[in-house]
Fold these 3 entries.
Entry 1:
Amino acid sequence: MAKLTKLDDIVSLCKRRGFIYQSSEIYGGLASCYDYGPLGAELKRNVRDAWWKAVVQMRDDIVGLDCSILMHPMVWKASGHADKFADLVTVCKKCNTRTRIDHLADKSDGDAAEHTEHVNIETEAAKEHDLSNKVCPACQAVGKFGEPMAFKLMFETQMGANADDQMTLWLRPETAQGIFANFRNVLDSTRVKVPFGIAQIGKSFRNEVTTKAFIFRTREFEQAELEFFCAPGTDEDWYEHWKQQRFNWYLDLGIQKENLRFRDHDPDELAHYAKACVDVEYKFPFGSGDWQELEGVANRTDYDLRQHQRGMRTMNDWFESKGDLSKITLKEEAEDYHKGPLSFFDEQNKERFIPYVIEPSAGVDRSTLAFLVDAYDEEEVKGATRSVLRFHPHLAPIKAAIFPLVKKDGMPEIATKLYDDLKGNFACFYDQKGAVGRRYRRQDEAGTPYCLTIDGQTKEDNTVTVRERDSMEQSRINIDQIKAYLREKLDL
Ligand code: ATP
């Protein structure tokens, strides 16, 4: 059983073994940006692949997409991000530190607030905020805060070389909008029919006010999002379906049940258009051993497609008028609903509607951190501490390490041959340096499920020692059977 481990242990293992480094470290580092090293790049790729396999490959009703990060600014106007994607912040008058007001702790609590949701800026801004008893997390001053104000979370950039043709664009703060913007394209170019989903994995950017806890909250991160389109009236069933599917995905990949839970959003937390929202939370080992969002599953109704239809109306000449989003009349709105380009005609029931959307939205980096934390274990073995990452075999960066026991007696030749034979099927690693016990320990720290050692007996009976990571048990398997053995054990 992995114990609750301090994040520092994970951070240090990640650096030492090449999972994750601070970005731009040679220049002192860039806050909240991280690079994945050789083992980390494999791990993260395996997390992505596991998501894609479960959400796209294994389903007949879901297709994939890979959109550009830069999109037409109208996308963010219509989605609401351009005006509303902001956090309410305050500046400490004593030390000038800017903090999200929902992250401020009360003087009496003593502990930093761990609540992490982005607030609904419209409702929050309208509320009275009494900060007189709140503590600045930087200098501990109490109640010395300025007026709360909105802090925009989207990064801006310029497209075009010359001042007169330059256009201000935003780096996408979520991948979802690229899916909505391609809804019609996918309908027209494939055979999908509602109910169906479009999935995407890609980078997103948010100029977060405060970043936190290693790769948990960063300003550049990767999301894995699914927009599942269904008929109004069937949305509640699909919502339940996706809630369970996504929860089970983490369990199937080895997350321990006691570290995973659902948290339903309170009605006042919900965005005005959302019918329901639940977070899949993981018990992360920071703060006071805290439950934090891993993934959100939301019933977004028909809000997004409707908004983009409104956006399109302001840009195109379809139907009669042009205008800005707020000028669209109820009549036009009704017309769009029944004829608009983002509506769907259900051939079977002969009815047209704008599909409802169920959105499971996961963080690739955040779940990678959860998999790392959950897999991390330390145990006493023969008077020494063994650190081991008990990854699910599908996630393990290296599936098998191949060692010659010693660098002589023909062992390296046999080991290299085995390595060459396996590497086309599994991510393998060849190592002939140092005592074999130390080589095992290094692979334990990398989370490698199997080590295969060519030793003196190999030449006699064609068997190799197979050492299993978790139990450390050793058995002898015929070298010709190794590929089939690994395939079965690793379920690959
Ligand atoms: P939070 O409240 O934690 O900022 P959110 O509710 O705004 O997150 P969503 O917009 O629902 O997050 O994003 C979906 C998922 O994307 C989150 O569950 C999380 O896994 C991931 N994610 C969001 N923001 C970040 C970030 N700054 N760094 C890393 N992952 C993130």
Note: The domain at 49-80+158-371 is CATH 3.30.930.10 (BirA Bifunctional Protein; domain 2).
Entry 2:
Amino acid sequence: MKLILCKTYEEMSMAAADEISALVASNPCCTLGLATGSTPIGMYRQLINRYKKGEIDFSGVTTFNLDEYYPISRENDQSYYHFMHQNLFDYVNVPKENIHIPNGEVSDPETECQEYENLLTANGQIDLQVLGIGQNGHIGFNEPDSSLWALTHITDLTESTIQANSRFFEKEEDVPKRALTMGMVTILKSKKILLLANGKNKHEAISALLDDRITTSVPATLLKTHPDVVLICDGEAYYG
Ligand code: F6R
């Protein structure tokens, strides 16, 4: 695992945007795996600025998002569909038809997951998957458990994740209790993985990622089996 230790969130966001810019420049038709949450917002801001300055062109890029709450309407301002449009897609030129986000509106989530996984397989490998990390070590919405699902699936959110994510909702009861998420194998199939983490509250999860053990009770530790992971984090996440 390669480590890029940054002094500030701004520096982290620049380093992450540099990775994406370099990939898109060398492979304009690449596939990006994208994440939501607070962590990548600065990186998306950087990418929007670079696009406005003509430094990056997304016209050939395809994207697949990691996850979406279930059930949730795409119009709900807490949906990841809404998040991605508000924080990136409304401001850059990724073609609409190249954008993929699991659909939290469907009546049959199992079929949606199967179709999402099939679409990913048909598209070929994700070139670069961006990840945040939950305080409990979750990746996407692969929550700590005695076993993990390999492929895209519907899952229950843990109490700790519901609580952590309630900061975005009016009240905790409004947080959806389930989500559609790529599985650990779906994520590990990506050519390269970029994991971003900032803040003291991520220190425990990052420590587990940096020790020698692999355990499904900290799903991020499975990333140790991947040959090309870049961890971009700040001192608080790294040192505690
Ligand atoms: C989001 C996702 C989650 C977040 C994680 C960290 O698409 O898959 O795993 O990356 O919950 O969230 P933040 O960045 O808000 O701390």
Note: The mean pLDDT is 97.
Entry 3:
Amino acid sequence: MKDKIILALDLTNVGEALNLADELRGGLSHIKIGHQLYAQGGMEFVTKIIQMGHKVFLDLKLHDIPNTVRMAVEELASHGLWALSIHSSGGRKMLEEARKAADNSGADIKLLAISVLTSFSQEVWQEVNPNSTIQEALLARAKVVMETGVHGMVCSPLDLPVVMPILQNKVMTVVPGVRLIKGGAKDDQERAATPGRAVSAGADYIVVGRPVLEAKDRFAAIEEIAEDMKRV
Ligand code: C5P
């Protein structure tokens, strides 16, 4: 089950992040690196984590005009990443250009399209997307992701029943917004569920950050998450 866990390495300091990644060697293979550590350590930091033997998901959520995203993917694909996120709201052409750039690179890199951020509630969503619901956006985005041949989609565990019929197990699902105690602290994650529930709803991978990073015993927290996934 630990092969299905991606640890969001959302620490504030590159040194601390390298230490934790080192301690996790042989225990947990997938690590997600976000904007803060990327800004601090750049590709040199990312490469160090890859050299430790980890599969790295660089979560930059690329969202720009197709040509700019294509150029970014061309560069990023040459560094040995396991996965890279792009934003499905960038539209069909952007997704196509990104996918072609990944294919042409010859690298074994997975492009993961963000669907709708797990921090959105319906109310907050409609403030900036006045004429659509989260569900409508999810359906439309899942369809475009499927049709453009992007490798994976990132969505909330609660969104899986909506997108799975469209993705038909041909697009892998990566699921953040995972919390151990149902109804417990969920920070800024509005659409959250337990690890077990996420896996039973079809998650290929779950992404977990604070439930591990803020735990008194991080390794025990990882075990607990894996146990919860096994129980289902
Ligand atoms: O700490 P927590 O478990 O909430 O971390 C979730 C991670 O997943 C964060 O790094 C966040 O950037 C990322 N993420 C997310 N929702 C998405 C895509 C990525 O929470 N839709």
Note: Residues 8, 10, 34, 59, 114, 117-118, 154, 176-177, 187, 189, 207-211 surround cytidine-5'-monophosphate (CB under 6 Å).
